[in-house]
Amino acid sequence: MADLLRKSDDITRDDIRHASRADVLRRYDIQFMDRKTWLKWRKQTMKGQGFHHRTHIGPTHRGKTTTEKQILASEITPDRQAVVLATKPAHRDPVMNKLAHDLRLVEVEDYPPSASARRYHRHRKYNGYLVRPHQTLTDLPGDKKHVRDVLQVAMIDSYANRSGRPVIVVCDEAHKICNIYKLNEEYEAPLMSGLPDCAQSSLIQRGRYMSYLAYDAPEEVIIFKDDDLSNQKRYSEIGGVDPAVILKVTSGLKTYETSEGHTISEFLYIRRAGPRLIIVGTE
To answer: Which one of 17, 92, 221, 222 is separated from 60 by 20 to 30 angstroms, measured CA to CA?
Structure first.
């Protein structure tokens, strides 16, 4: 496989930009997998390993939450739990409701659960928590403070990880968590020094004003079809892969319109161990 970060003297980034997409896919040995095959391949590849940091990048309704749910289904157990941070009210977030149901997560409005509650939930084979603070939707400043306070406690508790069992924190709207709720320090801590006890998965709609650690720290990066220039500029912060290659590949990702009117897309999967690049279909 050609080096994805440093080109030989006979190829430049301009060469990549002017090359056909097919040539780039062939030169860098980028394969296509349907979703089922990719999930099976990833499960086998990651077998026996701990949690890793990962980042999903793409506009709303591209499929980030669904993809994260599919990955978590092969990772989490009552002894390897997820703590999913949700900022939308339940009646406005059907995708997150389905995630909690399918993954056997306990929905809580406050955090942390008591020690007895945690033991009970593990005994009942629950795989973690969906942390969704209550919002009045009438007192907006009060709602903002309350949501921030609950998320902050959940993030710090997960990072401290006094139980000693591995946990992965899923930031469903990482941009909002960092820039609206001002929890950037709590967000960065696991990315800098959380492994192997506390990993973090970030779902990012907008690349602007996000910590470079969101792109530099993860072992896995998942990029959906995205014409947002601020997101594209962040490709340079994804270590191990030339941003020109990423832009060339993602520009050709196919999109599909769902019956609900949402536009989902294929995605580019990057695993830096290797490195390895795979285009993954929607099905």
So the answer is: 17
- Closest residue by Cα to residue 250 from 222, 282, 275, 272: 222
The torsion of the CA quartet 177, 75, 195, 179, rounded to 10 degrees, works out to -10
Backbone angles phi, psi at 142, to 5 degrees: -65, -40
From the list 283, 281, 279, the residue with the least C-alpha distance to 25 is: 279
Which is it for strands 267-271 and 81-85: parallel, antiparallel or unpaired? unpaired
CATH topology of domain 49-241: Rossmann fold (3.40.50)
Domain boundaries, the chain: 49-241
Measured CA to CA, the distance from residue 193 to residue 154 in angstroms comes to: 17
Beta carbons of 255 and 220 less than 8 angstroms apart: no
Up-side HSE of residue 228: CA atoms within 13 Å toward CB?
17
Q: Which of 150, 199, 153, 147 is nearest to 176 (CA)?
A: 147
> Rounded to whole angstroms, how far apart are CA atoms 81 and 6?
38
- Model pTM greater than 0.70? yes
**Token pair listed for 195:** 């492994």
Confidence of residue 1 (pLDDT cuts 50, 70, 90): very low
